[in-house]
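Journal club side-thread
Mid-discussion, someone asked how the predicted structure for our own chain would compare to the paper's figures. Pasting it here so we can look after the session.
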Amino acid sequence: MQRKQSVKWWHLAVVTACALPVVSLIPGCGGGGGSNSIQTRQFTGNYTGTYTGSETGSFQYTIGSNKDIVATVISPSLGVLTGHGQIDNDGNFSFNGSDTRTPRTSYTFAGSYNLVGDVQTASGTWRTSNNMNGTFTATKAVGSPTPTPAPTFTPGPSPTPAPTATPSSNRFAGRYAGSITLNTTPVTTASLKFTIADNSSIGGFFRAPDNSTVNLAGSATSSTGAIILTGSFADNAGHTQTITLTGQLRAQNGATTVVNALARTSAGVTGTWAASKT
């Protein structure tokens, strides 16, 4: 169906999407009931974490104001995985998904939140259908936006990347600039900026052609260079959509760039991105 050019890019990112694989949701587990009940809205935003046990990897997820969770897991054995789940009013949550191989391997993360002052953390256990298992921890990303459902997306102010500590023990720490290309109709291209701090946390944003901005948060693994960024926005129906960027940092010949860089929205739109250290 032909679409007018005036349709906003995030509407296109929803209506041109391919359907994602259906994953089943399981009830959350963990502590935090009764008098410790916490308003779900306090947890909305972007989180990063690591998991250990049968293998060690990283993950990133976004909690929307509708209690839905959209996750990306970077597994050394299964690759980059997407998942979906939910959180309840007591802070118990779970998300799960599977890879695309045959036969498929499914995974589940389940745990609970702790709110200490203004710091939001999560912990729990994970397992896979091929008998891998372990524990995980996660923390709300610094500067993580709190998505609010609205009839249309209202752009927020562009965050100013925090200065990087000097000298830095993290070879990837610094400021980066680049662009994102999404396979919408027409194709959407947006400029991208982010900063990797010495502790490997990431804050940044990308700016769409209509000058709207989407805040990004994430993390980079200093040892392997694996990088993951996520952001969220409200679509035309008021539903929270997310975008996830994954890639690999490479330092070579005095320059640091991102390779194997892929983008995907929770509505199924795919794309690529590129960035280099400035």
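Post-session note: The longest helix spans residues 9-15.
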